[in-house]
Write a structure and sequence with these properties.
about 180 residues, about 30% strand, two-stranded antiparallel sheet, 7-stranded mixed beta sheet, alpha/beta, about 30% helix
């Protein structure tokens, strides 16, 4: 079941490619929503810990994880801004309106060289986040993925008229200290 908007496959693929996470990675998601991203991360990573502040979203994600039979996800109904319990993790993905609030607890949770990724629909969020990165962080990049399918039938090859344009900016930073 879906409730809040989800990070789309094109953006999930970019996060995986930009951070190099894999079968030995431990990841944290802050802002679980319906659990789509955590479920996708669980298919790639060793372990996923997902923090969701809202009880209704937490319950929805819990049902979705149970339905999907995912055993490597730990779901917490807790405000990660108040603190993240895990240490030496490889990736923290933040999907809520003020991602800079997650920087202090994320800095404690990430291993040196670990990735912080923020999913920001608005460029003003990106600006605010980058302004608050500060010492101990290295901005890797800000990307936006655009997806356009093509119609290929017999000898006709042309782009489709509709495309999946802007969904969000993906901000990638690394912990350097």
């Amino acid at each position: 079941k879906r409730g809040p908007a989800v990070i789309l496959p094109k953006d999930f693929a970019a996060i995986v490619a930009l951070t190099g996470i894999g079968k030995d990675s431990v990841c944290i998601e802050i802002g679980t929503g319906s659990g789509w991203l955590s479920a996708q991360l669980a298919n790639v990573c060793k372990k996923v810990v997902s923090y969701e502040l809202r009880k209704d979203f937490h319950q929805m994600a819990e049902k979705n994880f149970k339905f999907l039979r995912l055993k490597n996800i730990v779901l917490k109904n807790k405000n990660a801004v108040d603190g993240i319990d895990e240490r030496d993790v490889d990736l923290v993905v933040v999907d809520f309106s003020e991602p800079w609030l997650a920087l202090p607890p994320t800095a404690k949770a990430l291993r040196a060289g670990g990735y912080f990724v923020a999913y920001c629909p608005q460029i003003t969020q990106v600006q605010e986040l980058i302004a608050k990165l500060g010492e101990g962080w290295q901005l890797e990049k800000v990307v936006e993925t655009i997806q356009r399918e093509w119609k290929v039938v017999d000898r006709i090859c042309r782009p489709e008229h509709q495309m999946l344009g802007h969904t969000a900016f993906i901000v990638v930073a690394r912990k350097v200290l």
